């Protein structure tokens, strides 16, 4: 269900969506231009950026830091549109295509990955073939399979990486000493500590990744799930997964009668000491929430010994964006060393960069070398040593729908 922020912002951006006379070039024309020509075409325009709106820190970074640079250096107005779920923006673009809106859509850019990217690419909803046009694309290592493939779907010049992320847990060291450090141990811990654990209801992306960890466990390891979707394998592993999740449900917070509706709600439950464990796709959230007073200072992040899932997230420009030139300028800015370093600061966002630091000039690389990790955030090298891959988007979509039908509806 669309939140009030999305509905209000959609009304505003729909009114703003008509292209300016200076920014009506189609994708093919833009792809043939020099970068300086793209920038001049974009100057004085606007860009409607649709993204998950559940983090105040991310919202400030986008609206104030990125929006400020766009305004000051390019005279471009950034309209940030907050979403509760990325599929809201994808469905908006899909509906516009079905209605024949080919050059005056409401959406200029979406923060995206996984099944939502697959939907846009397969549905012809993405503007593609432009990534080499971006000067800062030189800092992206497209030879890295985890960058070149989004949940197993080749990017093929249809989106640009923004950050990398990896799932991690955290607990309060003042409340207990030895947290569960693997999925099997966690499942036992949940039963031994009734009411002290829960996870967000799917389709929340943090809830979905927790469920995928249980799915990997039920499959005997992610190596048994890699490759194209296999219905027979899915049916067997899914049955085991739903049994596991339904078995622990009575031991969850509120006896599993309800699930948090978002990661933000789960964070508040942890802050209120209603649950003992917290997790997040973005490990640096621990440091951010300690510094802003949400989490107790004794919160400590940690990795699982049997691994946690990591991935890359991206930005995408819809095929019918009326402000493609401005969107390209925004994408190039998001890839810049300065913007990526600002995003990596622990008191801003703490997000791991999508660019390859080894490709940067010495002065730019020094920006990252000077960043001090919050001491309570799990060491990225510890996480990287146990990183697990994402499944292809067809798997993740089936798992999400299967949870909704077999666990969430119970």
Automatic annotation (TrEMBL):
Pfam family name, one: SBP_bac_8
Query: Signal among the record's keywords?
Result: yes
Q: Residues of the signal sequence?
A: 1-22
Could you tell me which InterPro entries the record lists for this protein?
SBP, YnjB
Q: Which key words are in the record?
A: Signal
Superkingdom, natural source = Bacteria
Q: What PANTHER family does its record include?
A: PROTEIN YNJB
**Protein name, entry field:** Bacterial extracellular solute-binding protein
Q: Which species does this protein come from? A: Flavimaricola marinus
């Amino acid at each position: 269900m669309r939140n009030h922020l999305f509905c209000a912002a959609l009304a505003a951006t729909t009114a703003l969506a008509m292209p300016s006379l200076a920014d009506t070039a189609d994708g093919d024309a833009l792809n043939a231009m020099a970068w300086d020509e793209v920038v001049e075409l974009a100057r004085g325009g606007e860009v409607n950026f649709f993204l998950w709106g559940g983090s105040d820190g991310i919202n400030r970074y986008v609206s104030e830091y990125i929006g400020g640079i766009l305004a000051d250096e390019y005279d471009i107005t950034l309209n940030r549109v907050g979403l509760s779920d990325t599929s809201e923006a994808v469905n908006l673009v899909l509906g516009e295509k079905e209605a024949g809106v080919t050059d005056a859509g409401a959406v200029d850019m979406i923060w995206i990955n996984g099944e939502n990217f697959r939907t846009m690419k397969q549905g012809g909803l993405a503007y593609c073939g432009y990534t080499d046009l971006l000067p800062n694309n030189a800092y992206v290592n497209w030879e890295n399979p985890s960058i070149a493939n989004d949940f197993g779907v080749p990017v093929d010049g249809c989106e640009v990486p923004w950050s990398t992320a990896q799932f991690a847990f955290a607990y309060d060291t003042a409340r207990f000493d030895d947290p569960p450090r693997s999925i099997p141990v966690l499942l036992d811990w949940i039963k031994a500590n009734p009411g002290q654990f829960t996870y967000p209801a799917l389709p929340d992306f943090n809830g979905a990744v927790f469920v995928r960890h249980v799915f990997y466990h039920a499959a005997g390891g992610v190596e048994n799930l890699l490759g194209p979707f296999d219905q027979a394998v899915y049916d067997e592993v899914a049955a085991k997964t739903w049994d596991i999740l339904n078995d622990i449900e009575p031991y969850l917070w509120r006896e599993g009668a309800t699930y948090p509706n978002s990661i933000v709600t789960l964070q508040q439950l942890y802050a209120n000491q209603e649950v003992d464990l917290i997790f997040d796709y973005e490990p640096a959230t621990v440091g951010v929430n300690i510094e802003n007073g949400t989490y107790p200072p004794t919160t400590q992040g940690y990795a699982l010994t049997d691994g946690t899932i990591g991935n890359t997230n991206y930005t995408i420009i819809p095929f019918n964006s009326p402000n493609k030139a401005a969107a390209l300028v925004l994408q190039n800015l998001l890839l810049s060393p300065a913007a990526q370093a600002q995003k990596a600061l622990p008191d801003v966002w703490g997000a791991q960069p999508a660019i390859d630091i080894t490709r940067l000039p010495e002065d730019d690389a020094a920006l990252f070398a000077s960043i001090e990790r919050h001491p309570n955030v799990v060491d990225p090298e510890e996480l990287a040593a146990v990183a697990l891959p994402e499944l292809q988007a067809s798997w993740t979509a089936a798992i999400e729908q299967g949870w909704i039908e077999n666990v969430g509806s119970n």
